[in-house]
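New to this. Please check this fold:
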Amino acid sequence: MKKILTILALLAIVLAVGAQTTNEPMTTYHKIQVEDCRFFYREAGSAEKPAILLLHGFPSSSHMFRELMPELADDYHLIAPDFPSFGQTESPSREAFEYSFDHLARIVDKFTEAIGLTRFAMYLFDYGAPIGYRLAMWHPERITAIVSQNGNMYEEGLGKKWEARKAYWQHPTPELRRQFSSAFALETIIGQYTFGTPEGSVGPDGYSLDYHYVCLPGRAEMQNDLILDYRSNVALYPEFQKYLRTYQPPLLAVWGENDPSFIPAGANAFKRDLPNAEIHFVPSGHFALESHHTEIARLMREFLGRVIK
């Protein structure tokens, strides 16, 4: 009898675990043609739920949202594309496709229309921020809320490394272009992931995958074009800020406080244009999701639950 009870108990545990696994939100993977780009994107959650568009940074891809999406999929419809020249999205040649932030924003805009995304919140990180802020300026009526995770739009938010980049933007010599190729070195990418994070909190998967992608044929030169064109984003900072003042979108800034690229002053500056902006810092670096995705998901749930009806 004791053995039978033990077997039944084990069976109950197996069935319970199986039920939990079956009910867990599932992320699915898709491709869609948008003009001359074949976009790869991740999707989770019911299309009947409020939508969130998640826009990644450099040198990452939608892979950076792999742990955040399941945490939010019960209550939200999440869409995370890879930009052209990033991740699994096909990258047209530089002769056929302009690798600028304005063009990336235009093609991401068309991607949202192609998948029928007409009203959505945005999660903006790093490169994804100036792309998302352009979308917001072009279509303010579509944006329900903004979550900015180290997604800068203020001069005071630029760390010291940007001083050298500004010099490059003013005098973009071939020699400086070659020097900035160090951004694609493995040790540089590892540093982006691990600097300022709790020891042992960041696994190797993200930075290893990023390095693989930047090493694909032609990608380095495409990325070099974007490093030079980042100056167009800084030039638009006043217009991004004007958008905030004019439309007052609900905004949550969640910042890795040890990020050397986009420093905490950039998060605090949102209060200047959005007095009701919510500002939070986590003890992490640039890629804060790698170490604090659960805390960021909690902050998002609390914030979005208040502002999206």
